[in-house]
């Protein structure tokens, strides 16, 4: 890290090149949720933070600057111990390149991901392959509605993620904090790191998975393991607070979906995700 | 196929086991869009149909009955010629198993996909690993609003996909047919095969990608190649017509997202998808 004090998030997602396409990493307990001591479940590092780590390894050898599409399958929960990320390129195109990245611990595959890198309209490099026509078309849906920051509920800094993230929840989605779940599987809030590091692609990956699970709104409080998460980066974020809004469309058979959007301080839709996850134990 | 006359869709997505984990397939021009003869672009088989083909190969050796999560990266466009699907299993779990499936032609990787198989609440096999708590939780969002079938606009059967699919578009999303695009990137309609084959996991994969691209609603008529598509199967569909509703959140820099839901005749949300695609040439 040299003489610069990196943020805890940058430390937790750091990669060190060990060989061509192979990077040493270490899941960081500062970004883990507590698991269930009574159930013998160890702390699990946030899925978005693990994706950010894998993105760093991919971007290290990418010809394009941004991870426009990332899909990740969470096969097994990493331990808080050394691991590695293996990167192999499946396609090198003018507009998009595609890599496979694997998070491996003790020679066992834990997370399998496929990552498309490319250009973004407000990014640092132009897409030389795009037609002018395609560039001319621009359209954005309405942003989510959030109350002003000072009307939101600040989560107390505890252990794990809550010590790292300054999260202010929309009161309409925070009833579960007082055991009065609102009855709708949704979650909205303002998101930033406590050390106020500016957003980038890596922090977006975390923000998309950094709110409490939407099923908390149905009273299903507990660890909700992600099975599959796909996210798309749509613009380079401006400095400042992020707004995150997550909704759900269907819960049944122990499965639920969570769709999150991240909007930046300049009013841009910068990232969107959907994950399929498992409902944890209910009512704990 | 024996003595049973399979539907064109079943023929087009058929797989023949050639070796352990290797299946012979053939992209079928009956499910291709025309491409651009003037631009020298050959017909491209619908991405959902290609995914359905890969799902057949994966399900052939899956311990679980349904593809609950599928993410696919479209690297290169398959030709109308023999190809193969290679399947390898990354995880075999009690609740979920995960496979990688690759569509390959002339030893070149064209589509890379990761597929999670598991159980569904109304499916043919129970999830023995699920807790009763998790099964108890059930919630569904509001379905999309569609006009009655007889008020929708039936697309004329032409060549390619339109000869196979009986698609009835919501007039509110069909203005582009008369060169009066509605100005919103959305598409809704009723979907069934012309030979009226009942829906299953394979047909859902097609239905999710079977409507005209949402950017047609912005007047961007043209081939819109999918870069990445992820979909989740949420319930086993009832027999009958499918309702498909697709929306978009953001278009810029030549990229757009398309989120589709499929609801069945029994009013169940049976599938949901999001894809990242490229805007085709505009105004053609």
Q: Tell the overall outline of chain A.
A: globular
SS field, number of helical segments of chain A = 4
CATH class designation of chain A: Mainly Beta
Give the largest interface. A-B, 65 and 64 residues
The average pLDDT of chain A is 92
- How does the helix and strand content of chain A classify structurally? mainly beta
Notes on the structure:
- Two copies of one chain form a homodimer.
- By secondary structure, chain A is mainly beta.
- The first copy, chain A, has one domain: Porin (Beta Barrel), CATH 2.40.160.210.
- In chain A, 11% of the residues lie in helices and 37% in strands.
- Chain A contains four helices and 17 strands.
- In chain A, strand 15 and strand 16 form a beta hairpin.
- In chain A, helix 2 packs antiparallel against helix 4.
- The relative contact order of chain A is 0.15.
- The mean pLDDT of chain A is 92.
- Chains A and B meet through strand 5, strand 7, strand 8, helix 3 and strand 9 of A and strand 5, strand 7, strand 8, helix 3 and strand 9 of B.
Outline of the structure:
Two copies of one chain form a homodimer. The first copy, chain A, has one domain (8-121, 149-278): Acyl-CoA thioesterase, double hotdog domain (Porin). Chain A has four helices and 17 strands.
């Amino acid at each position: 890290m040299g003489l610069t004090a990196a943020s805890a998030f940058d430390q937790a997602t750091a990669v060190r090149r060990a060989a061509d396409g192979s990077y040493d990493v270490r899941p960081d307990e500062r970004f883990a949720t507590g698991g269930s001591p009574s159930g013998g479940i160890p702390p699990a590092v946030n899925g978005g933070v693990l994706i950010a780590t894998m993105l760093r390894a991919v971007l290290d050898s990418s010809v394009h600057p941004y991870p426009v599409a990332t899909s990740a399958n969470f096969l097994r929960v990493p331990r808080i111990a050394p691991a590695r990320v293996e990167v192999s390129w499946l396609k090198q195109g003018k507009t998009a390149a595609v890599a496979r990245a694997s998070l491996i611990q003790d020679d066992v595959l834990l997370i399998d991901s496929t990552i498309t890198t490319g250009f973004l309209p407000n990014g640092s490099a132009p897409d030389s392959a795009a037609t002018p026509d395609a560039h001319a078309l621009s359209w954005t849906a309405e942003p989510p509605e959030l109350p002003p920051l000072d009307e939101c509920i600040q989560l107390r800094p505890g252990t794990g993620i809550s010590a790292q993230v300054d999260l202010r929840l929309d009161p309409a989605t925070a009833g579960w904090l007082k055991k009065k779940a609102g009855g709708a599987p949704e979650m909205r809030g303002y998101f930033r790191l406590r050390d106020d590091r500016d957003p980038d692609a890596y922090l977006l990956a975390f923000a998309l998975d950094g709110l409490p699970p939407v099923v908390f709104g149905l009273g299903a409080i507990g660890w909700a393991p992600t099975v599959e998460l796909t996210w798309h980066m749509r613009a380079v974020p401006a400095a400042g607070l992020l707004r995150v809004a997550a909704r759900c469309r269907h819960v049944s058979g122990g499965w639920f979906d969570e769709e999150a959007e991240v909007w930046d301080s300049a009013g841009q839709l910068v990232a969107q995700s959907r994950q399929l996850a498992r409902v944890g134990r209910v009512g704990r």
